[in-house]
UniProtKB/TrEMBL annotation:
Stretch list, region Disordered: 1-27, 167-194
The entry's keywords: Kinase, Nucleotide-binding, Transferase
Family: Belongs to the adenylate kinase family.
PANTHER family, alphabetized: NUCLEOTIDE KINASE
Signal peptide positions (record): none
A Pfam family reported for this protein in Swiss-Prot or TrEMBL: ADK
CDD domains per the UniProt record, alphabetical: ADK (cd01428)
Protein's recorded name: Adenylate kinase active site lid domain-containing protein
Length: 307
């Protein structure tokens, strides 16, 4: 390559990296607060690894934390948790909230957090809202991994785990080289004790009746998006990142009740074309619209390197 071409390409690289750095200054690349919602087997656990790495945030799986709590066979609390899990029901909210509170303060969570399997009830959603408000934090994005129950059953009932390493396999979709043996150590694979047909049906019922209402809860807060979880793992991850990046630039989620009420009113407006009679309310709407337009325009200008 001629020297001038080398210089040109170096210059271009420098320019690109300056652009990247400037860009990073205005919207830091790491950090996000994310919630994953989805039925058992929808892929939350798999995606949480990629997302936590991408944003350098701490993954918090209440299922894993609760399973850990059941390991102490002598503890009364551990036994209570185990019974609830094996029945396919939910562990009580107080226990779950205590775990969340303890884990959010870990140093790994300083850039943000990713909840996998939490909140699972409207009550937990409300509790989380209060907790975040007191910490002056907000949720950036709630990703729902949508998938039919029949496919979930095939996914879950074939799931195999190598407990010491956490490596997972699937009898049908990702079989180990030798049946029931870990590829790396050759040790025997296991199934999760709640991955039985009976418990799974109970878990799916619990999901539909108790967790799905949270989708509407977060839709009203303008932070929810649904993703087709039947797609390839890498495609689901790519879409998840696009959505989180989009939401991170929006002033969408406000914790105060007034704003939540406003969001509900906006839903009403869409269907009923309600007239705005209150002058103060009208002014508040105008200033919110202006803020939205201002943010949209500045984000386009920033992307093009104009500001
Ligand atoms: P899955 O998503 O496949 O059901 P998890 O590991 O997330 O698996 O959860 C396993 C079990 O742990 C649940 O069926 C439930 O009993 C319990 N659990 C997990 N998270 C919560 C929560 N936020 N609230 C109550 N129970 C929970």
């Amino acid at each position: 390559m001629p020297a001038s071409a080398v210089n040109k390409s170096e210059n271009n690289e420098q320019k690109q990296s300056t652009l990247k750095n400037n860009d990073n200054q205005s919207k830091p690349d790491i950090g996000a607060n994310i919630i994953l919602i989805g039925a058992p087997g929808s892929g939350k656990g798999t995606q949480s690894v990629g997302l936590a790495e991408r944003y350098q945030i701490c993954p918090i799986s209440t299922g894993d934390l609760l399973r850990h709590a059941t390991q102490d066979k002598t503890s009364e609390e551990g036994q209570r948790i185990r019974r609830a899990m094996e029945a396919g029901g939910l562990v009580d909210d107080k226990t779950v909230m205590k775990l969340i509170d303890q884990n959010l303060n870990k140093p790994e969570c300083r850039n943000g957090f990713l909840f996998d399997g939490f909140p699972r009830t409207i009550y937990q959603g409300e509790q989380l809202e209060q907790l975040l408000e007191s910490r002056q934090q907000r949720i950036d994005a709630v990703l729902e991994y949508a998938i039919e129950d029949d496919l979930l059953k095939r996914r879950i009932l074939g799931r195999l785990i190598h407990k010491p390493s956490g490596r997972t396999y699937h009898e049908e979709f990702h079989p180990p080289k030798q049946p029931m043996k870990d590829d790396v150590t050759g040790e025997t694979l296991e199934r999760r004790s709640d991955d039985t047909n009976e418990t799974l049906n109970a878990r799916l019922n619990t999901y539909h009746s108790q967790t799905k209402p949270l989708i509407d809860f977060y839709r009203k807060r303008h932070v929810h998006r649904s993703i087709d979880a039947t797609q390839h793992v890498s495609k689901v991850l790519k879409q998840s990142i696009e959505i989180v990046d989009h939401f991170r630039q929006q002033p969408t989620y406000k914790l105060s009740e007034v704003i939540v009420e406003k969001a509900q009113n906006e839903d009403d407006l869409n269907t009923k074309s309600k007239q705005i009679t209150n002058q103060a309310d009208a002014e508040k709407r105008l200033s919110n619209n202006f803020l939205f337009i201002y943010n949209s325009v500045t984000s386009v200008l920033r992307e093009r390197g104009i500001i």
